[in-house]
């Protein structure tokens, strides 16, 4: 299935609206396909023209680049769609390159998720370790200068404010949507003893607020030398259940706020303009499509600024310990970085004048257990190749090997494999005890399972067994024992304990509830308006 995305606009504000609307339209397509398609899902191709920045001097268009966030999230939520973004060269015959991609789509075990054609050259993205060159000595914090921090009253905002004051900033202007709490006031009072701290209340996405922040920083002859855009809102939502309001609430502070700060600093001589983006747009994060796309738009805006000769950098942060909205992204595959580690990275990256860098503690061993689909995505090749995952899940001969076992051994093998998968997804790290890490007969929902974990468990089962338990089954109270029985049935294996099989009952209940939801949705559809002639 190929979706062609419209051309670029010369105005960034038009680009912003187009990006948000395009993300919404594509998620609508995904929901329609997932909700109605029977059998193997079609592969999804998103096609843009001249939208990605391949060279440093190529501005690209943020609207096209924001789709990278969606591609990375769909890789985990719906890996069977193998969503791919292809950016064609609009100065050449685009159909030639697109035809080549479609012809070669199934030629290998891995696929590229982001591709750009420039002439006859094909460019792809790869995740790799950064090399930091701090010898450039780019100015970081100037003594007595002014700085602006959006999202300044949040956990990360206050950490940045303290870092600026510690480095000798004279005035720090903090933007926030509400008045500071008592705890925040205590932090501000301590900082106020060493620098001038000003809080400007307002939503940075609203017209005029960014201009007020800049004006405040430059009052009384203050020299504004740097901007940190750290405003953010995170709301968990799978693509299948994401609403337009959810997208708008997440999009506004990160993407719209970034555009407002870009416009407000047009006449400022800055040392740096720094965007705080997210690992969600760099690595993908199931349940965070809106945040990943908004962060990808910010990533692209930074590239656009650099190509236009303006200072700009972006850091794709993983979760920090104890502070920041990105704590919501903490799972079994991302460990937190300490505040000291984050500040050290911030100092180094600004001094090195890098355009874009991710800073996160990725547990690749856990990632491959919880998200086996990353083995099929070439973007993660280096991560996969570096990993020594021996012993994480033990030897696994695949579903074909189960046919050679007697029913009791087959059930035991399926149970152990699913137990390891579920334990990895739900963050149970001790799998070495005699007792199973996951109770056999307790509903997973009573162990803290949510919809995101259910998707990951389904994906892991698909990778291991080439069949999958429906997410609805997992969420309707299935236990490890129930999932084992369901997989045994789908694999055509005899179950030695059929009396213990509760999966069919749970599956029937899930079907009934799904049918009821579908009927309710159909009844809520507006009837067509009929006008008299």
Automatic annotation (TrEMBL):
Pfam family, one: PP-binding
Cellular component terms (Gene Ontology): cytoplasm; plasma membrane
MF terms (GO), sorted A to Z: 3-oxoacyl-[acyl-carrier-protein] synthase activity; fatty acid synthase activity; phosphopantetheine binding
Annotated Basic residues bias: 513-526
Entry annotated with the keyword Cell inner membrane: no
Domain of life according to the entry: Bacteria
Residue numbers spanned by region Disordered: 513-533
Keyword set, alphabetical order: Acyltransferase, Multifunctional enzyme, NADP, Phosphopantetheine, Phosphoprotein, Transferase
UniProt KW Membrane keyword: no
Record-annotated membrane-spanning stretches: none
Domain Carrier: 412-491
Biological processes, Gene Ontology terms: DIM/DIP cell wall layer assembly; fatty acid biosynthetic process
Coiled-coil blocks: none
InterPro entries: ACP-like_sf, KR_dom, NAD(P)-bd_dom_sf, PKS_KR, PKS_NRPS_Biosynth_Enz, PKS_PP-bd, PP-bd_ACP, Ppantetheine_attach_site
Protein name listed in UniProt: Phenolpthiocerol synthesis type-I polyketide synthase PpsD
Organism of derivation: Mycobacterium tuberculosis
Top-level taxonomy: Bacteria, Bacillati, Actinomycetota, Actinomycetes, Mycobacteriales
């Amino acid at each position: 299935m190929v979706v062609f995305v419209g051309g670029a606009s010369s105005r960034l504000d038009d680009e912003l609206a187009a990006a948000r609307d395009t993300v919404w339209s594509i998620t609508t397509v995904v929901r329609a396909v997932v909700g109605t398609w029977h059998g193997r899902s079609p592969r999804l191709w998103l096609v843009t023209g001249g939208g990605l920045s391949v060279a440093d001097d190529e501005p690209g268009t943020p609207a096209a680049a924001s789709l990278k966030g969606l591609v990375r999230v769909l890789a985990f939520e719906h890996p069977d769609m193998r969503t791919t973004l292809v950016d064609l060269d609009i100065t050449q015959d685009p159909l030639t390159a697109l035809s080549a991609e479609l012809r070669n789509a199934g030629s290998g075990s891995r696929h590229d998720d982001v591709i750009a054609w420039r002439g006859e050259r094909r460019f792809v993205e790869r995740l790799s370790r950064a090399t930091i060159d701090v010898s450039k000595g780019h100015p970081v914090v100037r003594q007595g200068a002014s700085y602006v921090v959006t999202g300044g009253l949040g956990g990360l905002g206050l950490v940045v404010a303290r870092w600026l004051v510690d480095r000798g900033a004279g005035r720090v202007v903090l933007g926030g949507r509400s008045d500071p709490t008592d705890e925040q006031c205590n932090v501000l009072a301590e900082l106020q003893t060493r620098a001038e701290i000003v809080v400007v209340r307002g939503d940075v996405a609203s017209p005029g607020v960014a201009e007020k922040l800049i004006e405040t920083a430059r009052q009384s002859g203050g020299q504004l030398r740097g901007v940190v855009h750290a405003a953010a809102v995170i709301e968990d939502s799978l693509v299948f259940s994401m609403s337009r309001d959810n997208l708008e609430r997440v999009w506004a502070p990160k993407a719209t706020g970034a555009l407002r700060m870009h416009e407000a600093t047009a006449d400022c001589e800055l040392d740096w303009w720094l965007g705080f983006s997210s690992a969600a747009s760099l690595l993908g994060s199931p349940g965070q499509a809106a945040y990943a796309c908004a962060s990808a738009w910010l990533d692209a805006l930074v590239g656009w600024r650099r190509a236009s000769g303006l200072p700009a950098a972006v850091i794709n942060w993983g979760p920090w310990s104890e502070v920041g909205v990105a704590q919501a992204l903490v799972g079994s595959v991302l460990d937190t970085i300490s505040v000291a580690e984050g500040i050290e990275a911030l100092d180094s990256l600004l001094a090195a004048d890098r355009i874009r860098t991710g800073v996160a503690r990725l547990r690749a061993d856990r990632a491959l257990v919880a998200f086996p689909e990353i083995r099929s995505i070439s973007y993660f090749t280096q991560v996969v190749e570096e990993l020594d995952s021996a012993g994480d899940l033990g030897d696994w001969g695949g579903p074909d090997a189960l046919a050679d076992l007697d029913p009791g051994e087959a059930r035991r093998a399926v149970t152990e494999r699913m137990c390891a998968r579920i334990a990895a997804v739900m963050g149970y790290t001790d799998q070495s005890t005699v007792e199973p890490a996951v109770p056999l007969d307790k509903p997973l929902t009573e162990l803290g399972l949510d919809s995101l974990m259910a998707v990951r468990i389904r994906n892991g089962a698909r990778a291991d067994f080439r069949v999958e338990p429906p997410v609805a089954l997992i969420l309707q109270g299935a236990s490890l024992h129930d999932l084992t029985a369901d997989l045994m049935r789908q694999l055509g294996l005899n179950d030695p304990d059929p009396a213990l099989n509760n999966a069919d009952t749970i599956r029937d209940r899930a079907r009934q509830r799904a049918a009821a939801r579908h009927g309710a949705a159909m009844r809520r559809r507006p009837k067509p308006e009929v006008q008299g002639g």
